[in-house]
Amino acid sequence: MLTEEQRTAMRGTLTREESMALVTSEWWKDMTTRDIAEFQLGQRRLCMPFEFFQLAVEDALGRGVLTHEFAQPDALLSELREARS
């Protein structure tokens, strides 16, 4: 599991090669849906299969998320963080 510092340090900075390495590692399998959603929403590049990402975000938010909503990841991330409060 990634620490808050690691997530902050990696926010949006993954290279294509790093993203592909994460896909291969299947890193999301040992994380909570909330952690998956927070980490992936902070990245410019997809680091996992989209279907798992969408399911994680929907579970973390407790609602269905339409595909076009992923074009504004900051809005989803804000909603996720507000739900925590």
Describe the overall structure.
By secondary structure, the chain is mainly α. It has one domain. The protein has helices spanning 4-10, 16-25, 33-41, 50-61, 73-84. The radius of gyration is 12 Å and the shape is globular. The two termini are 22 Å apart.
Number of strands: 0
Roughly how much helix do the residues carry, as a percent range?
A: 55-70%
Low-confidence segments: none
- The count of helical stretches stands at 5
Largest sheet: none
| Shape estimate | globular
Estimated share of beta-strand residues? under 5%
User: What is the C-alpha radius of gyration, as a whole number of Å?
Assistant: 12 Å
Mean pLDDT: 88
Q: What structural category arises from helix and sheet content? A: mainly alpha
> What distance separates the N and C termini?
22 Å
Tally of structural domains: 1
Order of helices and strands: HHHHH
